[in-house]
Specification:
Length: about 150
């Protein structure tokens, strides 16, 4: 009896996980949407909201930068570096929130020591996250859009 109950629970759980597993399509749909101009819903419906997100990494020289906007990306860049893009969230994504982040690679300080470069995130013209860089600290900037 106990074995039959366990099997029934496992089958039900697998069915629920399969039904809820369509999140990958939502990510693909969001990635395919691109900028606000390619959104399939008119802005007048008020369900979607487009944000202009700008990442900035300070310092001098070359470094790597890892960032998450609509997908994770990595670039070798010349500092200072700036990246701006529009990100459109539907009403469900806005309820849950989407985290955007930038992780600067190391830069050489004046004393020759390697440390994280300073970074910031600006959303719709307002600075929402800032990290001074250096050897101490968080070494990344992140913000949740809603």
């Amino acid at each position: 009896m106990r074995r039959a109950m366990t099997i029934t629970v496992l089958i039900a759980t697998a069915g629920l996980m399969t039904a809820c597993g369509s999140g990958g399509d939502a990510k693909k749909e969001r990635a395919d949407k691109g900028t606000a101009t390619s959104s399939s819903k008119p802005a007048s419906e008020g369900h979607d909201k487009t944000y202009e997100v700008t990442f900035e990494v300070g310092g001098e020289g070359k470094s790597s930068v890892y960032y998450n906007l609509d997908t994770n990306r990595s670039e070798q860049v010349t500092l200072p570096w700036e990246k701006s893009d529009n990100l459109t969230l539907n009403s469900t994504e806005r309820k849950v929130g989407i985290t955007v982040s930038v992780v600067p690679g190391p830069v050489k300080l004046s004393n020759g020591q390697l440390a994280a470069a300073p970074c910031s995130i600006t959303v719709d013209g307002k600075k929402v996250a800032e990290e001074p860089g250096g050897v101490d600290g968080k070494h990344m900037c992140e913000y949740t859009l809603r």
